[in-house]
Amino acid sequence: MRKFLIGLAALIMTTGAFAQGFGQFNPEDMAKMQADRIKEVCKVDDGQYKKIVDYFVKDMKEMTEQMSQGGGFGGFDMEAMQKRMKAQTDFLKSVLTEDQYKKYEEDQRKMMEQFGGGGFGGF
Predict the structure, then answer these.
(1) How far apart are CA 85 and CA 6, in angstroms?
(2) Do 17 and 72 form a contact (C-beta atoms < 8 A)?
(3) Nearest to 40 by CA among 90, 111, 107, 112
């Protein structure tokens, strides 16, 4: 779990850098990319997809706001990230069927393996 959170933190800090430094980061686009991946992997219906997009858009906007208020990288808070991940897990479990959630978990596991066994760059 720690490796996963470190990897996720690296991703979020990178997206925070885009938000601040390059002006190309768009929370809605990032949220839609996440939702599209879940739609593809889990074969969600239109109703589920809308709920997922709405949730991720709201979450990404909140996260971007927190990062910008904390000075980008300095705005990262591991405890807040753990709470955010718990809330996301609870949300997805409430929207996806048991089989869909298993597919989601397997996809997440595979993605983490691609990043050095659970973290970005082998962390």
Answers:
(1) 12
(2) yes
(3) 107
Give the span between the Cα atoms of 88 and 100, in whole angstroms. 15
Contact 57, 27 (CB under 8 A): yes
Dump pLDDT digits (tens) for 72-115. Answer: 555 567 787 788 889 999 999 999 999 999 999 999 999 888 87
Neighbours of 111 (CB within 10 A): 11
Q: What is the pLDDT of residue 70?
A: 63
pLDDT at 13 over 90: no
Residue type, 84: R
3-state secondary structure of 10: helix
